[in-house]
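Chain X:
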Amino acid sequence: MRIYKVGGAVRDRLLGKPVTDIDWVVVGATTEEMLAKGFRPVGADFPVFLHPKSGEEYALARTERKSGRGYGGFTFHASPEVTLEEDLIRRDLTINAMAEDDQQNLTDPYHGQRDLEARLLRHVSPAFAEDPLRVLRVARFAARYATLGFTVAPETLALMRQLSESGELEALTPERSWKEISRALMEDQPQVFLEVLRACGALKVLMPEVDALFGVPQPPAHHPEIDTGAHTLSVLQQAALHKQPLTVRWACLLHDLGKGLTPEDEWPRHIAHEFKGLKLIKAVNERFKVPKDCQELALLVGEYHTHGHRALELKPSTLLELLQSFDIYRRPQRFEEFIAACEMDARGRKGLEERSYPQADYLRGAATAARSVAVQPLLEKGFKGPELGEEIKRERLKALKAYKEATSV
């Protein structure tokens, strides 16, 4: 029995990055031997065990062969005869196909260290094209390591294009796709994830609504970058730069989908794109079974982001409707995330990344004014039921009028 550290832990150590999760592969062992040493089995499809003390995952060396469609369409074979090199060749990228023993002696049969130095994301073998999930994984690694200068090798991009055209991407489950998408959006350069997917034709398959934004012009007076797709990538980049949570990043990605529906003879204007985009946002949310908080914020940002930009001009009654739509009294954090998404949208314009966004503080102040209306005095005056609701609304409107007058002096 020989035990090796494999994959990301080896890669990140060689890159000088912090190592968090460690994967281990065991060569020359049987399931019975692992159980005898106190390891606990967890793998349903292939033998993976938890270490009796550390709880880390140890997998028996295995080979695999394609037996069906999609991410799960593989048959695995694990036995003491499977070599370390045979185990490593089934991995996706050369930089993930390295192993080291307890003395840090490197086993690198597919030149992962060379590709680390060349800053290349390169597939290990032609079997790469058997697993459609790898298209998303490589794009995610590109987003993670873009700041270090990594790019996708041309021959790997060609295989990703082949996978995108094969129909295999449609076999991915929503859960697996969302796991990769959500992780990619939380990387330092999430826009690179979209750029790589677009370069290999996968964006058109997975998110045609986003792909359709490229080549669609916007008014240069408001959008110096002009192209709606380029703007979307910039907004996402700003969201990462400002350390926004996943909910905000997802909303930033989808906020302008309606512009992809504008007839060409109406370009570069996009009248009512906020409402036109809602059905597209819903479709993307449903396709990937997106978590509820991400779904809700994306729809609200899609519908109301232009309200956010025009906050200083809104009538008190419109401002009240906006605040009510977000249920700011019970869900204050959601409104804060809306403000953040609007600010990222404003900053995601060429040359305007550093421009101040006074709408943010104005909206926060409006929310505070509306929340300051106390309900108890109205109850003491005898208001109840629907009448109480209407009176609360009147008092909040009065508070917002006073707020607008006070801030416009």
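Chain Y:
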Amino acid sequence: MTRAALPDAPSAAMIYIVDDDAHLRASLVNLLESSGHEAVISFDSAEAFLRFERPDVNSCLILDLMLGEGSGLHLQAQLQQDAPPLPIIFMSGVGSIAVSVQAMKAGAETFLTKPLRQNELLDAVETALAKDRQRRASCSTLKQLRARHQTLTPRERQTMALAITGLLNKQIADRMGISNITVKIHRGHAMKKMGARTFADLVRMGEALGIGPAPF
């Protein structure tokens, strides 16, 4: 592993490089640092990269397709369980259309051929980091919604699930076997706990959580 001088700020964007060519790794680190990226770490193998404890910050991976010990596609497959997934920029000197299509279908951001064009690589890095920021923001929002939803009582969850389908309070009361007033109380508590300012907000939250009406 080759580590550039990392900044003290824990929120700095991280750029990882995995390639078994030491000269290329050094060149990429120098290029990225000279372009203003302060946190760049390179690895000579997929195993070394996987052993590294990555901080939970904005990041992307520049990955060689043909590593010495195996295909970069294998590492890509191992990283697909990450949430959010790490954006991957593939590079190869022997890439084929079939392989590039496979990499893109598996979620790669782009596929570059060696020798790399500096501007093309830098643009790809900026695009990958921007997408990662968006994914992290969405993932953070969803985690917050799930945490809020867990604070609801079972009855409040049922009321929310039925309400966001468009049922009226009276219909929900009939379905749940409770009074109309109790439904209003559960609905009000659900909106407050979820942080929904309007019923439309509650509906959007339910859609984001994938909530459907509870069976009765």
